[in-house]
């Protein structure tokens, strides 16, 4: 449900950059979405078809680059995936860790003509 | 001819800009502001009522409440002693966004407020992604929800400044593994300030109230 608001933002960002570059059409949009950001590709795609209609980006293909959640151990520095680790560093068993990837949520690039 | 433009722009940027404006308004008025987040049924509204009852004789409390369709929670807070209350009907939206809080701030007399409690929509997924401009993000967990919540909803816990574990009085009757829960929280957010309490018995509420009072004092101009 919350994808409606963010899809609107994606469209605004896209159009702003496309217009600044005098584009006549936007063909592709590259999004980077971390697994911890809780945004779902299909929902964004669903709202996109409605929101982008009538703009120069209406035919654009959305590309989703998902970034898995990764932790970095604060004791030994080992980086590991959040999902399999159950809160414990597989290298040294420490529970002190910081999220180093997985919160991303941005428009990386757009292709225009 | 196809040309690629590097954008690298945070999709939530416009929300974050409004959140920063909200923060300026709140800080200028010397208000301490909280964003309370939880799943539905954690006892968030009851905690707010208990809090308002305990603090209303010494502090002026305002309440902003996000609710999908009703004003029930805002009404409850006001009855408990919140001097001003604004209900935001999100119209089906599953979380509050900064512009909704901005509209609510415009309806409040900020000069007559010491503490602002923003009660988010009951939901453990979306609210964490949308900054509102408050000082502290409080997650209210509760023992009947089960001890696996930090593992299933990590983002809610990584973004929290404070954790309340409500319904501690039910612990003897439930299969809630407090150690498993705490371990999950500790892995995601080491050293998170935590208040285990019960709104029903009052156990642990003093520590929560003392923390709020210290924060109110620290944010006064």
Give a description of the structure:
The complex is a heterodimer of chains A (113) and B (221). Chain A is an alpha+beta fold. Chain A has a single domain (3-112), classed as hypothetical protein PF0899 fold (2-Layer Sandwich), CATH 3.30.2320. In chain A, 29% of the residues lie in helices and 32% in strands. Chain A has three helices and six strands; from the N terminus they run H-E-H-E-E-E-H-E-E. Chain A has a three-stranded mixed sheet, with helices on one face. Chain A has a three-stranded antiparallel sheet with strand order 4-3-5. Chain A is elongated. Chain B is an alpha/beta fold and 221 residues long. Chain B contains eight helices and eight strands, in the order βαβαβαβαββααβαβα. A seven-stranded parallel sheet of chain B has the order 4-3-5-2-6-7-8, sandwiched between helices. The longest helix of chain B is centred in the first third of the chain and has 16 residues, at 13-28. The radius of gyration of chain B is 18 Å and the shape is globular. The termini of chain B are far apart. The relative contact order of chain B is 0.18. The interface between A and B is large, with 39 and 35 residues. Strand 6 of chain A pairs antiparallel with strand 1 of chain B, so a sheet runs across the interface.
Average pLDDT confidence of chain A is: 91
Helix content of chain B: 25-40%
- Counted up, domains of chain A total 1
Q: CATH H level of chain B: which superfamily?
A: P-loop containing nucleotide triphosphate hydrolases
- Beta-strand portion of chain A reads 25-35%
Summarize the SSE layout with pairings.
The complex is a heterodimer of chains A (113) and B (221).
Chain A: H1 3-20, E1 26-34, H2 41-51, E2 61-67, E3 70-73, E4 79-81, H3 82-85, E5 97-101, E6 105-112
Parallel strand pairs in A: 1-2
Antiparallel strand pairs in A: 1-6, 3-4, 3-5
Chain B: E1 3-10, H1 13-28, E2 32-38, H2 44-55, E3 61-67, H3 72-79, E4 84-89, H4 98-107, E5 115-119, E6 136-142, H5 149-152, H6 154-158, E7 162-166, H7 178-188, E8 193-196, H8 205-219
Parallel strand pairs in B: 2-5, 2-6, 3-4, 3-5, 6-7, 7-8
Helix pairs in contact in B: 1-4, 2-3
